[in-house]
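Archive entry. Fields below.
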Amino acid sequence: MSNSQLTPGIVPGRLPAESYIKNFGDLEPLLDRHEALVAADRCYFCHDAPCITACPTSIDIPLFIRQIATGTAEAAAQTIWDQNILGGMCARVCPTEQLCEEVCVREVAEGKPVEIGRLQRFATDRVMAAGVHPFTRAAPSGNRVAVVGAGPAGLACAHRLAMHGHEVTILERRPKAGGLNEYGIASYKAPDDFAAHEVDWLLKIGGITVKTGVELGRDVTLDALRKDYDAVFLGIGLGGVNDLRVEGETLEGVRDAVDFIAELRQQPDKAKLGIGRHVVVIGGGMTAVDAAVQSRLLGAETVTIVYRRGKDRMSASLHEQEHATQTGVRIIYNAAPVAIRGEGRVSEVEFAYTQDGPEGLVTLAEHFTLAADQVFKAIGQTLLAPAGMAADKKLPERLADNLWAGGDCTETGEDLTVTAVAQGRDAAEAIHAAIMGAKV
Amino acid sequence: MANLATNFIGIKSPNPFWLASAPPTDKEYNVRRAYEAGWGGVVWKTLGSEGPPVVNVNGPRYGAVWGADRRLLGLNNIELITDRPLEVNLREIKSVKRDYKDRALIISLMVPCDEDSWIDILKRIEDTEADGVELNFGCPHGMAERGMGSAVGQVPEYIEMVTRWVKTHSRMPCIVKLTPNISDVRKPAEAAKRGGADAVSLINTVNSITSVNLDSFSPEPMIDGKGSHGGYCGPAVKPIALNMVAEIARNPETHGLPISGIGGVTTWRDAAEFMALGAGNVQVCTAAMTYGFKVVEEMISGLSQYLDEKEMTSTADLVGKAVPNVTDWQFLNLNYVTKARIDQEACIKCGRCFAACEDTSHQAISMSEDRVFEVMDDECVACNLCVNVCPVEDCITMIELPRGEMDTRTGERVGDYANWTTHPNNPGATAAE
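PREDICTED_STRUCTURE:
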């Protein structure tokens, strides 16, 4: 192919073949045994450790690190999975710099935390690679639970329910299980099909049936599920995408960032993916960063994230922002889109500078324009509520006697895999207590 | 610059750092390179009687204990004395000494416990021009099974007897190397002195098993499924060695007997500590085996800088400085009262002091909701455990209560010096009159 970084428009194959392998390989490689021992030795085994408190799933971090230090990665993995069955993915995608590692006493004291995330991956990867699934099911309870959505919340919920002896059916609208782990995470954070492997590994517990291509509201109703099952858990995520509401939004070349990321994740040969020469990403969250960074990795000549507020308001962490800028992404803060322009297809985006003051966000008179062959919208997602529910707000964690929810679709969701896992796990415990209590 | 040149029992060397009798000093090639690297002296690896040389195992000779990042903390070995022919060693010793007249060269010896064997070996080494001999009464493995090494060192009468033979049949300065594998190191030191030894060197290695292979259930180092105890050395044994050196230095019977300090000397600071406790020089092995001969450069520069800082002009100013302060427990001042203090600025809130004190000591540290850790003076017995487990240097320190101040733990004011010998709880207390 003769395309290069300078080829105008949206074209595939801008880079030499070997670049794609390098760009989409493991961002942070697995620690080897000795590296893990050295990293583990830095842990002080704090009393009532702040890292445990900071972890949404409350993993006993000092304990699992000590188990690594003493050569028992198997025990370490068990400690992790007891609290977080998707500990393998969380080790890769958790913003540890905002969670456990942010409060590590060595981060506070030296600016160099214990590498908790990488140590967690060391333990979980080792045991998963050995094909070990260290959980077994309790005696069959005779109860059946439906879980809608095979994302982190649904999977965590299903695993915990199966462990308690219940029969679980997961209904997933997409062709594959995994949710955002499969369709929404940047490729270089979970290469080698890790999300799918982790789902396969999780299902080894047994008692879980996954039905893909089944959509709530289209193929099955919530009422029917509630009638057919002892309990229903909704882990349906956020299916909707916010619009920019500016002129030109429907021009060719303007696209939702989540769709782009999902397509990228599902394409094994990244060289086949078209990418613009000049890419503009509008938004300030992880989706914006993932879309922007991967645009660069696909060979876009210039990539610019434009966020309407300041650096400190951006929901992508400083670490992620730095990663983006190191990859060659430019971030413009305090600017909002005014219009997207082009002849049939996008060629430029006009922005107005903004000011974030006590009265809220104010648009200033000064404008600027960025050349763009491709625009990604990443300004947040919304709940697509199942029929019969209010569409304008997120769900509570318990909706009715036999109806629970967890993950991003809930009011308490945080747009984090690890939070979704905690909610799914806790919902499973609540469902277990409720249906077993009802039986007594 | 302080002068590091030392005169140890008449043997001069440009610095107090000698390589101990061990594999690094087994042949001319190494010893020449050691001298070139800067070592002040060398104790040539132990020679035995003439005849077929000893044989060593052909599997692993060393076992180890590691700290974080595989730092070698302790090493043990099951190697025997030199396995090279006697005449080769003698020829090489003579050759090296001729070229390095300013360096110390001592020959370590170990032959069977009869006078003729000692007369014979002493005669053979006579014309090497070596500066002295060191009697190996220390090796705890292999040779001890044949009635040599520590088998001699564990019987003071034998030490005295053999030392006397050596002093009778040789004019060379004689150092007796002691084993730590005994209950009271003063006894063999006294025996060496009675026999006429010019000095003692200690410690030789400690009987040890470094680890057990939990798959094959054999001690390490493992030889064909079996293991044998070996001699332990390196940083891990230094505290044991320091105590033994101090015991000899402060024992009235042996006070003033020159000591060559051995046992885990890895840095200039280790050497200075041995010397402060009475060692006239030090011998090094594990540090050289771990890092190579070059480590002596740090030892030389470090000791020199330290002596300058202390305004000492030679190593003699340092030797024995700490000996008067080594005493028995019964003479420690029971009215020396300290309390732990936590520097809140330095504290990183790991809570290790709290866990240690609360779970295993005197419940004298409080923890607030927001992880502020504070010492409760009315519970603190000043045990120092919090200081030792704190990962931050100088974050927790011991502050002395001045005389007359109230100790809120005991409800008594801090009094004048008083020790156990006069304490009312001591049934054997002598009345203060």
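CURATOR_NOTE: Chain A has 17 helices and 18 strands.
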